[in-house]
Amino acid sequence: MSAEPDGPEGRLRRLTTIWSRSLFPVTSTSLTRAEFEEELLPLAHRLSSLLRARSFDAEEAKAVGAALVEAHCTDPEALTRTLDCVDAYLVLYCGEDGPQDELRMRSSRLQHAMAAGYAQALRERTLAEQEAIAQAALRAQGVVAQALHASEARFRAVFEGAAIGIGIADLDGNVLQVNKALLRMFGLSEQTLRGRRVFDWTHPEDAPQTWKLYDELVRGGREHYHVEKAFNRPDGTVLWTNLTVSLLRDPDGNPQYQLALMEDTTERRLLHLRLRYEATHDALTGLPNRTLFFERLEKVLGAGEGQRFGLCYLDLDGFKTINDSLGHAAGDRLLVEVADRLQSCATAPGEMVARLGGDEFVALTTGPGTERKVDELAERIMNALTTPVSIDGRDLLVRGSLGIVEGPAGERTAAEILRSADITMYRAKSAGGNRSELADAEADARAITRHGLTTALPTALERGEFFIEYQPLVHLGDGSVRGAEALVRWLHPQHGVLGPDRFIPLAEHTGLIVPLGRWVLEESIRQAREWRERYGEQTTAGPLRINVNLSPCQLSHPGLVQDTVDILERSGVTPEALCLEVTESALIGADDDLLKPLRRLAEMGVDIALDDFGTGYSNLANLRRLPVSILKLDRSFTRGMQQFPADPVDLKIVEGIVSLAHSLDLAVTVEGVETGAQAEQLRILGCDTAQGWYYARPGPPERLHDLALVDATG
Questions:
Q1: pLDDT score recorded for residue 585
Q2: How far apart are the C-alpha atoms of 701 and 686, rounded to whole Å?
Q3: Within 13 Å, how many C-alpha atoms sit on residue 259's CB side?
Q4: Alpha carbon distance 436, 363 (integer Å)
Q5: Are 490 and 468 in contact (CB under 8 A)?
Q6: How many angstroms separate the CA atoms of 539 and 175, rounded?
Q7: Could you give the residue ranges of the DSSP H alpha helices within 53-75?
Q8: Which end of the chain is flanked by fewer CB atoms within 10 Å, N or C?
Q9: E strands within 629-676?
C-alpha cells in the first residue's frame, strides 16, 4: 500500500524534491535529476529520524554530510544550499507533531553536525587529491628545468584539472605557475598572479608561526607545512584557505621549488561562524547565552594573580504571572525589552550581559576596581528596571531580585561563583524582591548545607538514619506520666544529630514528609504497644498514650486515615492510645474537606491536639467546629511564670484559655515547663498535663519506662 500524498512519506518526498532541485545544478553527477532525487531520499529519511529521535546522534548526522560528498556534491555552493533547505523545510515537513522550539534547536544541531561531517569528508577527499598531486609533483621534479621530461604530460593534466588551487614558486618567492582553480579563487588573471611574490600575501590574520614555517621550508629545514591562511582579494573580500606548502628538490636532493596547494574554506568558515554565533547567543534576545558566559568567566578566572571580577545575577520578580495572564508572546517581548535595557547598562570595557535562560540574566565586570564597579553596575541595572514596559497598551512594572558576587580570580570555579550568585539572588527574593544582596560566605554555606540535606533525605530514610526520642507528658494533678510526645531526629553521617527544625521543612518542601511521617507514626505506635505490653499494668493511670505530630502536608494527603487505621490494626493498638498533634496555623481557615480526615480519626477514638495554640491568630469561636480534644498551649504564654512572682498578664491569659477550653470539654497541655514554680502555677490555674525539661528532656524510650515505673511505685 502506498503512502498517502499528505502522510509522513508524502511530506518527506516533497522535502526531497525541493532538496534535489536546489542541489542538482551545482552537483557533478551523470544522473538525471529524478535519479539524483532517489539518491537523496534515503538521506532525507535519516534526517527525519534524527530530528525525531529521543537522543541526538551527532555521528549519524555527520554521516549524512559525508554522504553528500560521496554523491559528488563537492561544489562550495552545495553545502550552503543543503543547509538552507534543511533549515527551512525539515521541521516543516518532518516535525509538525512535536514541540517546535525543541525541534528547531535539534534542526540547528543537525545542520552543525552535517556541516562538520561534510567538511571532514571533503577534506579527506581533498587530501587524497593533494596526495595524488604531490606524488605527481614529486615524480615530476625538474619539470620546469627539464621540459622534455616524460612525466610532464601527466603532471600537467593533474595540475590543470585539480579542483583545488595549485601554485609553483621558486625559493625567492617568485610565482612561476598557477592553475585555473587558483585563478578563480583569487579572481585574477594568470599574468597578474604570476607577477606576484609570495611575500605580497601577508595578512593581519596570519598565525604567528606562518612565516617562520615558510622560512624553514625555503631554507630546506622542513619538507612541508600546513596552516590556515587568509588572503586579500582585489574586490576587498577575504579568501580563507587550508594551505599546504611542500618543498620540491632537484635530482641531487637540493631545494629547487615550492609547491602550494590551496583549498577554499571561506564558505565553510562563514558557516562555522554562523553556527558558532547561534550556539553561543540567545535566539530570543541576541544576548550571549550560558555557554559564552561561562567561556568568558572561565577566561577571566584563569587570567592570573591580580585579576578580579564582579557578577550580578538577576531574576525577574513575578515573570510567571505575566506569562500566565498575558501569554508567552507578551512574556517574550518583555524579555527582549529587559535584555535591551541590561545591554545598555554594561557598555564599559570588560563588561558583558548574558541570558542564562528563562527570566534569568547575568552581568559581568572585570578588571581593577571591581568592588566599586559591580555596585555601580548593580545600581544601573536596578534603575533600568524602574520604568514600566509598554506591551499591547499595558504598562507592566518590571522588578527584579539581584545577587552580587565580587572577588579575586583563581579562588573559586565558575560553577561555584554562579552558585553563590544564585543563592544570593534567592536570598534577595526571599526578603521581598526588588532589591539586591551581596554574597555572604556563611549564608552560602547554610544554603549549600540545606541543599545537601534535601538531596540526602530520601536515602536517609532508606538507610534507617532517623530515630525517635520521647518526651514524657505529666499529669499536673498527681504527677503521673500519662504518655509521651514522639520527636523524630536525624543521625546524619556528617552533621551528627539534627533536630526536626533542620529537616522537617525540607521534607515538607520535597514531599518526603508523607513517607517520613508514616514511618514515625508506625514506629511510635509500635513503641506504644511495647509500653502497654510491658508496663501497662504497672502505671497508675493505665496504658501510656503516644503523641505524634502531623504535618500540614500529611493532613491533606488522601491516604492519612487509611494509613493510620492500617498501622493501628497491624500493631494491635486501640485508637485511644494515639494522639495526633496539628499546629494551629495549619487549621486557620480550614474548610470542611481539610477537616474531614481529622473528624473521621476523632470519631474512631483518636485524640486530636491543637498544637502551638495561641500563635496562629485564630478565632477562638472556631474551636467549636474543630475536631480537637486537647489544646497544647504555646510556651510563649508560660515563660513569664518561670520566676516568682509570675507575670500577671500571662496568668490572666492562661487562666482565660484554660477556662474556655474546659467549658468546651477540652483538656489543656502546656509545653516548655522548666521550673517547679512554673509547674505549680500551671497546676493552680487548672492545666491538665505538661511537658518540658523540668520533668525530662526528650530521650530514648527506656527513660520513659523508668519515669513511669517510679510513678507507679511511688
A1: 80
A2: 29
A3: 26
A4: 13
A5: no
A6: 113
A7: 58-70
A8: N
A9: 630-633, 667-670
What's the pLDDT at 403? 95
For residue 135, give the C-alpha cell: 606524488
**Per-residue pLDDT, 147:** 42
Among 26, 37, 27, 17, smallest CA distance to 89 is for 17
User: How far is it, in rounded angstroms, from Cα 12 to Cα 226?
Assistant: 42
Task: Check residue 148 and give its pLDDT.
Answer: 46
Nearest to 338 by CA among 312, 364, 360, 313: 360
d(C-alpha 582, C-alpha 11), whole Å: 62
- Distance, in Å, from the CA atom of 481 to the CA atom of 540, rounded to the nearest integer, reads 8
What per-residue confidence (pLDDT) applies to 131?
74
Cβ-in-10-Å burial (0-12, 13-18, 19+) of 427 comes to buried
Instruction: Please provide residue 573's backbone torsions phi and psi, each rounded to the nearest 5 degrees.
Output: -105, 135
Whether 61 contacts 50, CB under 8 Å: yes
Query: pLDDT for 515-570, tens place per residue?
Result: 999 999 999 999 999 888 876 544 545 568 899 999 988 988 999 999 999 999 99
Residues 304-334 as b or e (16 or more Cβ within 10 Å = b)? eeebbbbbbbbbbbebeebbeebeeebbebb
**Alpha carbon separation from 388 to 331, 360, 384, 405, 685 (Å, rounded):** 14, 18, 10, 27, 60
* Residues composing the chain: 714
- DSSP label at residue 387: S
Identity of residue 169: A
Residues 6+ apart with CB under 8 A from 618: 584, 587, 588
What does the DSSP assignment read for 447-466?
Answer: HHHHHHHHHHHHHHHHTT-E
Pure H helices in 282-366:
290-301, 319-326, 328-345
Q: What are the C-alpha distances in Å from 567 to residues 28, 375, 524, 573?
A: 80, 58, 10, 9
Contact yes or no for 228/240 (Cβ under 8 A): yes
The three grid cell numbers given for residue 55, joined into one nine-digit string: 537522543
Q: First and final CA of the chain: distance in angstroms? A: 95
Output the nine-digit C-alpha cell for 609.
491536639
Beta bridge partners of 468: 488
Query: How far apart, in whole angstroms, are the C-alpha atoms of residue 551 and residue 507?
Result: 10
Backbone φ and ψ of 150, nearest 5°: -65, -25
Hey, CA dihedral for 326, 329, 335, 336, is it positive or negative?
A: negative
Residue 145 grid coordinates: 628545468
Please tell me what DSSP assigns to residue 201.
G
In terms of Cβ atoms closer than 10 Å to its own Cβ (0-12, 13-18, 19+), residue 210 is middle
Chain segment 302-316, per-residue pLDDT in tens: 877 778 999 999 999
CA 513-518-522 angle, 5° bins: 145
Question: What residue ranges of the chain have pLDDT lower than 70?
Answer: 1-6, 134, 136-158, 535-543, 589, 615-621, 644, 705-714
